[in-house]
Structure of Na(+)/H(+) antiporter NhaA:
Amino acid sequence: MTWIRNPQVSAMLLLGAAILGLVIANTGLGPGLDALKHMHLPFTVFGLDLSAAHWVTDGLLVVFFFVVAIELRYEFTQGDLSSVSKAAVPTIAALGGVAVPALIYLNLAGADGARGWPIPTATDIAFALGVLALVAKRLPSRVRALLLALAVIDDLIGILFIAVFFTESLSLPLLGLAAVGVVAFSLLGRAYRGKRGSWPLRILLLVVAAVTWWLVAMSGIHATIAGVALGLVLSPAPAESAREKLEPFTNGIVLPVFAFTAASVMIPQVPLGELSPVFWAIVVALPLGKLIGITAAGLLGQWALRVPKGGRVLLRELLGISLLGGIGFTVALLMNELAHRTTPELITEGTLGVLAGSLIAAILGATYLALLNRRYPDVETAEIRARDAEEYLRRTDGVG
């Protein structure tokens, strides 16, 4: 299953699933698919009564956020964000990439769509890294490192938005019990180290995770926050083991199923000019807002922090990163559903806006980076040239 860990494969699966969902929703099968998405089980699950679509967003997607949280913890403890100096520039760039799209959206969406301002602030890690790996293999490693760090911080901000702005009612007792579940999960994770063959402990971890997820869902906070909390507190050894086992599942099933479900909306039979301001706000805010926000904040951050010239991300590289930052997709689609849950017509237009804006950003980013990629020598060619230069200097040493 190594192939499914490839970021290019993951990005293609996401795109393919979204296109398939959109196409089917606009054929004769569309009404049946819509009915399936809204179908409920004939019984509740310990008080939870969710539609099939909500079992995807509130249940299946929790696994994805669990894996994301494990990556977040790694990046903040051992990776590219493990010190203040490492995290400073990506954090400033990410904040710019959140603030500018949100402001553009609020100026275009109007009062009816104002609740959706967090939608264009998201960046899809899997999709953005997939496009980068596909078209820009020669670019310096600092480009991928900054994009990864920026997307990780962006995801963290998105998670906070989901927890804070999309919680309508809150049960503190249930939330307190969920916190106890998170602590218990953390303690069990510590005991798991060195006991990889302990099936009873693994089963207990799964049970505690499931109960914690249920408590979070019943408390009023979106259930994906349970995955985030559990992933952040899991000890490194079991966390890495869980990530390795779950990554093929999230890349091959969770994200494509979510993309298919979220993108399966019927395109309104109206002229472009009659689409709601929400659609246009997202289409503009994702590619343009991210381009302006990340580029300006990234340059400002490097200047303000006096990053050494040799360690800076160049303007031409930052422009490419900013364009890929406009690929919102997974988290943007989720926030669109949460923001407009009471207005189905805005969910439809918001979904189309996310897909269109992300596609524009992906095409612009891929084209720009493919052209930029040509300006950098192939790694193998560069190594040959370096060896030739060393040989030349050795032979001519002392010859005047």
Remarks:
- The radius of gyration is 23 Å.
- The chain has one domain: 2-166+222-396.
- The longest helix spans residues 344-373.
- Residues 2-166+222-396 form a domain with the Na+/H+ antiporter like fold fold (CATH 1.20.1530.10).
